[in-house]
Amino acid sequence: MALGTKTVIAAMTVALGAALIAPGCLPEEQKTNYGGPEGLYGKELPKPVNVPSGSDSGIAPGGCADGGKPLASTNCAVSWKTDIFPVMKAQMHCGDQGCHMPQNPRSAGQQPAIDPNDPVDAYNSLVAYTSSKFPGKQYIDPCTTTPESSAILCNLTSLPGGGKAACDPLMPLTTTGGQVADQAFLDTKLRVWLTCGAPNN
Question: Per DSSP, what are the bridge partners of residue 130?
Answer without folding.
Answer: 138
